[in-house]
Write a structure and sequence with these properties.
Blueprint: H1 6-21, H2 31-42, H3 54-74, H4 77-80, H5 83-108, H6 117-122, H7 127-136, H8 143-166, H9 173-196, H10 200-208, H11 216-234, H12 239-253, H13 260-285, H14 295-313, H15 325-335, H16 340-352, H17 358-388, H18 393-405
Helix pairs in contact: 1-2, 1-13, 2-13, 3-12, 3-13, 5-8, 5-14, 7-8, 7-18, 8-15, 9-12, 11-12, 14-17, 15-17, 16-17, 17-18
Length: about 425
Amino acid sequence: MLSHHPIFVIFLAAVAAPLLAQTRAGARMPVVVFELLLGVLIGPQVMRLIEYDSFLSVMRTVGMVAVLFMAGMEMDFERIRGRPLSLAVRGWIASALLAGLVVAVLHAIPGVRAPAIVIIALTTTGLGTLLPILRDGGLLEQPFGKMLLAAGTLGEVGPIVAVSLVLSDRYSTWQEFGFLLVFLGLVALAAAVGVGVRPPKVLGLLSRTMHTSTQLPVRFALLILAALVVVSDLFGFEAVFGGFAAGMIVGLATRGTDGEAFRVKIDAVCFGWFAPFFYVGTGVAFDVGALGRDVTTMLLLPSFLLLFLVARGLPTLLYRRDLSRQELLPFAFSSGVASLGLVVVITHVGLQTKHMNPDIAQALVGAAVLSLLVYPTLARMLLSRAATIGGGVGLGGLAQAGRKQEGIDHGSKS
């Protein structure tokens, strides 16, 4: 009966997820993990309350674009410019090379067909998971925080650009690169116009309609999102690239206190309505049985969990002169936290374009979920220990933030 009411079932899970995250045990897990797990529970694998039909498939894609739109709005390159950004770029390139080497080794193992797209998935970093820890500890302006913020930013931007180039079959590689430059030029121009040109009449109209039923600023932002998705499709890129670019434009145009009211509204629309279709829908579509189908697939889950750490953690050696010894290992574990949203996007696109085997996709998503549970916890434990034995101010601040996240605030101040 409920299978005929997918919206009700999706939002039943969407409401249950943050409630579970408020419990003592759930405080250690990101809400998106609960959304995905509840999606598995209500889906055809377990309770069969909902099917992954055409409606949910379309809404999941829309939700995916909206999530990437919000990720674009969070990008702030001004905060990480200079050495943090330079190290982050070099670190991401090193991650791509390491991931490429790993995939080549995996591909040589009988029974394992690891496609090139796995390289992109292994270079992601869950910036959304790291931001609350950095913000709560007051570390965004400290060296550790700036370096980690920059690494996380490249762990979001790099894979999005890469997946749009690698998975495009419409044009040749050189044509796609040329279109990428043109597309980025259009994005830069639109961002410059949004930031620099603010006619009083237009600003007045937007302000007057901010709190009316027309919600013109929100509708205008969604129009920009739709327009960039269309343009990215015309250039042969994935829709998520257009969504991310639109988010960067809108984010730059709404920086500061003047844009706070708008950002609250767009948060409500994207995270309140669209995002549940993406995360819960991913759980519904997740094939749990694929993980235990054969020994090779079963081994891929822990292997990918380790490889997220190897690909993103080893480049931490580039930071030897900028971070203390006590900070290097926690930095590596933090960098190894996969971006669940991006991994889901990459595997979704890979399956749609037939560039990825379903078993590989399920193992990657499962490993990304585990990385959200394991690596932040290990990083907080190491930072807390370092602070206890006399670590620096940055270590103490991040350790305190970790204790707040775990609900064990000892009252210490960074």
